[in-house]
Amino acid sequence: MDEFRRKLVSNALTPVAAHMPYLPNLSSPKRVIYNRSMKSLSAELDRCDALGLQYLVTHLGSHMGVGQDLGLERITEAINCALADNPSDVMVLLENTAGTKNSMGSSFEDLKRILARIEDKRRVGVCFDTAHAYAAGYDLNSSRGVEETLARFNAVLGFNMLKVIHLNDSKCGLGSGRDRHEHIGMGYIGEKGFRAILKHEAVRQLPLILETPIDDRRDELGNLQKVRQLSA
């Protein structure tokens, strides 16, 4: 742990974001699953603090058909309790979702409703996933679409809440509701869309995290090189 913190400093790596495991469901109506999910969030916050990380990205889960009102109540209770139990400077970043059935947080308005109910405002922000946004119906395929989408983000949430970008192309079409990541420029967002995203004033200074596939077409280094090419 001490060595990890030393290397963060010596390599000037900041900010650094961790990601919650995928199994916890902070919107679950099932008490056992929900309690375990709350404990997982609290434990991850504690680990981030111990390791000197600035951000913890979390998915918002599924209400499993019970309805968004209960999902909203569950999420905000979990985050408020976890932040209160883990006093530190670690921020919880809410990741927008792809609009899959029963999922929470696919629209900017949904994220705003959640954020409005968080008690410690200084410790929450947003992680914007490009593939999820496109699948949820936000057009990122053109310069105009990118400008309109990010203007909407600013109007609803404010760019001050935007802390990290998950940079992924989408295998599925606009508004598909399907969370399927693709190599940068090879999906429906395409090179034109990513060129506009990467050069947008609200994005270009933020941490960019690739969650793209690794296959015989391209690896992580190839996607990083493509991002550098499109941002030049």
The total beta strand count reads 8
Helix count equals 8
Rg (CA only): 17 Å
* Helical amount: 40-55%
Which sheet architecture does the biggest sheet show?
6 strands, parallel
Shape: globular
Structural class, please? alpha/beta
What fold name goes in the CATH topology slot of the domain at 2-129 and 161-169 and 207-231?
TIM Barrel
SSE series: HEHEHEHEHHEEEHEH
The fraction of residues in strands falls at: 5-15%
Low-confidence stretches: none
CATH class of the domain at 2-129 and 161-169 and 207-231: Alpha Beta
Lateral strand order in the biggest sheet: 1-2-3-4-5-8
CATH homologous superfamily identity of the domain at 2-129 and 161-169 and 207-231: Divalent-metal-dependent TIM barrel enzymes
Gross CATH architecture of the domain at 2-129 and 161-169 and 207-231: Alpha-Beta Barrel
Span between termini: 36 Å
Average pLDDT level: 96
Describe this structure in words.
It is a single chain. With 232 residues, this protein is of the alpha/beta class. The chain has a domain at 2-129 and 161-169 and 207-231: Alpha-Beta Barrel (TIM Barrel), CATH 3.20.20. 42% of the residues lie in helices and 13% in strands. The chain is built from eight helices and eight strands, in the order αβαβαβαβααβββαβα. The protein has helices spanning 2-10, 31-51, 68-85, 108-116, 130-135, 143-156, 190-198, 220-231, and strands spanning 17-19, 55-58, 91-95, 124-129, 162-167, 169-170, 181-182, 208-210. Helix 3 (68-85) links the parallel strand 2 and strand 3 (91-95). The longest helix is centred in the first third of the chain and has 21 residues, at 31-51. It is globular and about 45 Å long. The termini are far apart. The mean pLDDT is 96.
